[in-house]
Design goal:
258 residues, 42% helix, two-stranded antiparallel sheet
Length: 258
């Protein structure tokens, strides 16, 4: 299936040393030979593979709403609520008020949408532009096959790799120095290739517990074992010694009544 050179190196003839092994050549179609990744001198073989899998989006889309409360309050102050809330039914009046409220708030709300890589959060817009430039240089070399164009591509590719490495180190340092431990746990969880599973508990005989009810009981016993059952407090105060009064006075504490 691979019918073009897959390895390009300076002062060497392009060679085909990468293959695709498949029991059915129709499973892998639309083969493309893209620019190398990082500092590699092997091209990226891209294509369409027929298989069934669950698509998990790697790009996190966040919407941030900004409300102009000054404009909202000003418009609410100028509304004629007497003419708006004309119904004597409380449910109907509440429905009209809710619609009016949501309409005014939506009118003075601006929504900002931001996209961020969920798998590599250190990849910013500057790095994405550099990736596009690297691909452009690779296409130039593929058309010309000049060594000068190849050197330009490799030089820029090495620069991009160093930029990505520095961005990742900076991001990880910020996570490690953050006072919020959730950021660290979130990053560790996202870096795990497989799903993190909750390990099973063991009983006193070192046997694994498979029943959820027994697991809950073990947690309850462990929780209660960390607390002492204190004896009841015997107070010297009785109901006869408590004086009820409607006058609010200062509360005084002495050694005798503590």
């Amino acid at each position: 299936m691979v019918n073009q050179p897959t390895r390009y190196r300076q002062n060497q003839d392009p060679s085909r040393i990468d293959l695709i092994l498949s029991s059915d050549e129709n499973l892998f179609t639309n083969i493309q030979y893209l620019d190398p990744i990082g500092k590699s001198d092997h091209v990226v073989i891209s294509g369409q593979l027929q298989l069934c899998y669950k698509v998990i989006p790697h790009t996190v889309v966040k919407n941030k709403s900004v409300i102009n409360f000054v404009e909202v309050n000003s418009e609410f102050a100028n509304l004629d609520w007497t003419s708006i809330l004309t119904s004597s039914n409380i449910l109907e009046s509440w429905a009209v008020f809710k619609i009016t409220f949501n309409t005014v708030v939506a009118k003075h709300t601006v929504i900002f949408t931001s996209k961020k890589s969920g798998t590599k959060p250190w990849i910013n817009s500057r790095i994405l532009k550099m990736v596009k430039e690297k691909r452009r240089l690779w296409k130039i070399y593929k058309r010309s096959r000049n060594q000068s164009d190849y050197v330009s591509h490799r030089t820029y590719s090495n620069r991009l790799s160093n930029t990505i490495k520095k961005a990742r180190i900076s991001f990880e340092n910020n996570v490690a120095n953050s006072k919020d431990p959730k950021l660290l746990y979130k990053y560790i969880r996202s870096s795990i290739n497989g799903l993190a599973e909750t390990p099973q508990l063991k009983n006193h005989n070192d046997d694994l517990i498979t029943d959820n009810y027994v697991t809950a009981e073990v947690f309850a016993d462990c929780f209660s074992a960390n607390y002492l059952v204190e004896p009841p407090i015997h107070s010297s105060l009785t109901s006869d010694s408590i004086v009820h009064s409607s006058i609010l006075m200062d509360v005084e504490f002495s050694e005798d009544n503590i």
